[in-house]
Amino acid sequence: MELNGKRVLVVGLAKSGMAAIRLLHEFGAVITLSEARARDQINELDQLNAYGVTVCGQQPEDARQGFDLCIKNPGVPESNPFIQALRAEGVPVITEIELAFQLAKPQHYLAITGSNGKTTTATLCYEVIRAAYPEKTHLCGNIGTPLCDVILDENLLNEEGHYIVLEVSNFQLINIDRFRPEAATIINLSPDHLDVMGSLEAYYKSKTEVYRNMEGDDFFLINADDPVLAEYLEKYPVRCKTAAFSLERADTEVCLRNENICIAGEDVVPLSDIHVVGRHNQQNVMVAASLAKYCGVPNETIRKAVSEFKGVEHRIEYVREWNGVKFYNDSKGTNTDATVTALKAFDKGVILLAGGFEKGLPMDDVKAHMGCVKQLIGYGACGPRIVRETVGDKGIVVTTLDEALAEAVKIAEPGDVVLLSPTTSSFDQFRNMEERGEHFKELVNAL
Fold it and tell me: Of 267, 366, 379, 430, which is the most buried if we count CB atoms within 10 A?
């Protein structure tokens, strides 16, 4: 990719936009930033000025400036009229991940996507591989650190052969071109992002982009327990080597055997060494351990790293025990399948706090898994609908998360679990799911 003197437009700033600008500047691009915010609201303006970045708006005429390339922030919808105007002008649109991939030296890319479990699985995969290659393993992508930053900060414009564990969202996959991971997986598929994607077909298809360019000896790991994934693998076939994992079957390359996670006939991780709660985490360990073995990590190293793993913040995160009641923060439960997964981790006595931004997701699956729930408390924009469509008059509806926790404390008895697992995003009352989770933990720790 030749960038020196090329006119490149970055649409949307945030972390990934700023990271792309850093890398573009390194290669001598003439950079324009398109931002919905006014100039005086951009905190990074001094840094942008130092890079010689021109700032423009997002009107149709702004798209008609003869740009050679556009780097789109994943948070900007493909349906955005400004993006459509750029495409009408024939401007190629890619993401920050694609930019970094094309500019860096060859690396070992491991891409992890799916509707749920991405962050836990990617983090564990990183920890296991890092235990074997401590100076050459990096975690980035949707998890919070842009790939462009890693490429610059770890000198990957000059060094090759590092292990890059990428958590990738469907929004990051929509605009890939040549991005080709060496190993990848789609952990699962369940409804999400209907408010942006418009249909389940579009959402599920976007996930399959992770393996579109994979071929030959590349390695794709298949969840044999997911019928939706099976349907989309048939529609969009994988063209590289594959292996399957399963919690239910014993005939897959990765399975449960004699209370162990077995990979290619070897007992690799005893279930007793897994300290994160829930059956879904056994699946996450299967994926991370399988990808690590593909990278040549010895069994003993895998087992030790798994046994030391305590989980990921905001994902069924244990907060504290108070008066015999345990509190868990699952703010990362931003869709219904994530909440179902959290509910499956407990047998009984759950006081569920659910609500937030209205994404329009159906609640049928949550309703079918309410057996362990002692009380449902709905809050926020979609709280009333969650209660109405799951437990009806038996539920409690409040306005804020603070009120929801206060109600839970009134009801909770020793042995109960108070679980924040919202089923949806946080944007009605919080900037993001991290802020929501931190607020919940502050409330709990103040009891």
Answer: 379
Within a 10 A sphere around the Cβ of 40, how many other Cβ atoms? 6
Distance CA 188, CA 186 (A): 6
CB 259 within 8 A of CB 272: yes
Residue 219 phi, psi (nearest 5):
-130, 120
CA–CA separation, 186 and 118 (whole Å)? 9
Give dist(CA 245, CA 414) in Å, integer.
38
What the block records as the tokens of 426 is 């946080």
Rounded Cα distance between 163 and 140, Å, is 11
pLDDT at residue 313 in the model: 87
Contact between 172 and 93 (Cβ < 8 Å): no
Are 87 and 28 spatial neighbours (Cβ–Cβ below 8 Å)? Answer: no
Contact criterion met (CB below 8 Å) for 222 and 243: yes
With a cut of 50, which residues of the chain have pLDDT below it?
Answer: none
Instruction: Judge whether 275 and 305 are in contact, CB under 8 Å.
Output: no
| Four-CA torsion 318, 281, 293, 142, nearest 10 degrees | -70
152 phi and psi angles, rounded to 5 deg: -75, -50
What is the residue whose two structure tokens read 């002692």?
Answer: 374
Q: What is the pLDDT of residue 194?
A: 66
Q: SS3 sequence, the chain?
A: CCCCCCEEEEECCHHHHHHHHHHHHHCCCEEEEECCCCHHHCCCHHHHHHCCCEEECCCHHHHCCCCCEEEECCCCCCCCHHHHHHHHCCCCEECHHHHHHHHCCCCEEEEEECCCCHHHHHHHHHHHHHHHCCCCEEEEECCCCCHHHHHHHCCCCCCCCCEEEEECCHHHHCCCCCCCCCEEEECCCCCCCHHHHCCHHHHHHHHHHHHCCCCEEEEEEEECCCHHHHHHHHHCCCCEEEEEECCCCCCCCEEEECCEEEECCEEEEEHHHCCCCCHHHHHHHHHHHHHHHHCCCCHHHHHHHHHHCCCCCCCCEEEEEECCEEEEECCCCCCHHHHHHHHCCCCCCEEEEEECCCCCCCCHHHHCCCCCEEEEEEECCCHHHHHHHHCHHHCEECCCHHHHHHHHHHHCCCCCEEEECCCCCCCCCCCCHHHHHHHHHHHHHCC
A 10 A CB-CB count for 198 gives 13
